[in-house]
Amino acid sequence: MSEPLIAADRLSVHAGGVHILDRVSLAVRPREIVTLIGPNGSGKTTLLKAVLGLVRSEGTIRRRTGLKIGYVPQEFGRDPSLPMTVGGFLALFAPVRAREDALTRVGVAEARNRQLGALSGGELARVLLARAIAGRPDLLVLDEPMAGVDVAGEAALYHLIADIRDEFGCGVLLVSHDLHVVMAQADRVVCLNRHVCCEGDAHAVVRDPAFLELFGARAAGELALYAHHHDHAHTPSGKTVCHDG
């Protein structure tokens, strides 16, 4: 097994005397998609920020030497009145060739001259992903990157993330509220509720008593059925393509 790109050991975060995270351990390796799930307030976003060093935490965080990280935050405020094009926005973070390649890779090269404030939710999600991959990161950290994206676009974007993982050989750590997508895409699922309740491959997690307590037997049954019948793929536009056989 390869060495982790990033590893947190017994990570804790406190605020106002409250345990936001309690001794959480987590690792992400190259070419691995690790998805964090959990109820609202379970500490998912705080955990991402802690491993990135954006919030103060207790415990140990080890990063591979020279690790390059691409990050898509949960919220990205944009002012429709601000005259900023997609190309101008990405120019703040990457040279011309890198940003053009990234926009082409995520399927929105034609949006380079459009205003950020005029983009749809799906287009903005792809632009933010382009910003994150422009430096060819070793690790992608994505905090609910599909906010404002419709169902078909969401599935296509998750497949795109998996394709980027395959192409770059990077690790992916993401938060998702869509458990069905978790079943289809994650190599490992970590169920969080301030501490790690359970973790493993998706099929094992949905049968874990801790998962059942948080999400219920009905959710587990639906997800198991979805995994069994998920015999199709999605093109970048969101079109469904069935597998043969």
Textual characterization of the structure:
It is a single chain. The protein is of the alpha/beta class. It folds into two domains: 1-68 and 138-235, 3-Layer(aba) Sandwich (Rossmann fold), CATH 3.40.50.300; 76-136, no CATH class. It is 36% helix and 25% strand. It has helices at residues 44-51, 86-91, 96-106, 121-133, 151-168, 179-185, 202-205, 209-215, 217-229; strands at residues 6-15, 18-28, 33-37, 58-63, 69-72, 139-143, 171-175, 188-192, 196-200, 232-234, 240-242. Strands 5-6-7-3-8-9 form a six-stranded mixed β-sheet, with helices on both faces. Strands 2-1-4 form a three-stranded antiparallel β-sheet, with helices on one face. α5 (151-168) links the parallel β6 (139-143) and β7. The chain is globular, with a radius of gyration of 18 Å. The model is unreliable at 225-245 (pLDDT under 50).
Count the DSSP helices: 9
Fraction of helical residues = 25-40%
CATH topology-level fold name of the largest domain: Rossmann fold
> Structural class, from helix and strand content?
alpha/beta
The count of β-strands is: 11
Q: Strand-and-helix sequence, N→C?
A: EEEHEEHHHEHEHEEHHHEE
Strand order of the largest sheet: 5-6-7-3-8-9
Taken as a percent bin, the fraction of beta residues is 25-35%
Largest sheet: 6 strands, mixed
Q: How much is the average pLDDT?
A: 84
The level 1 CATH classification of the largest domain is Alpha Beta
Number of domains: 2
Which architecture of the largest domain does the CATH hierarchy give at level 2? 3-Layer(aba) Sandwich
Low-pLDDT stretches are 225-245
State the shape: globular
Q: Output the radius of gyration.
A: 18 Å
The N- and C-terminal alpha carbons lie at a distance of 33 Å
CATH superfamily of the largest domain: P-loop containing nucleotide triphosphate hydrolases
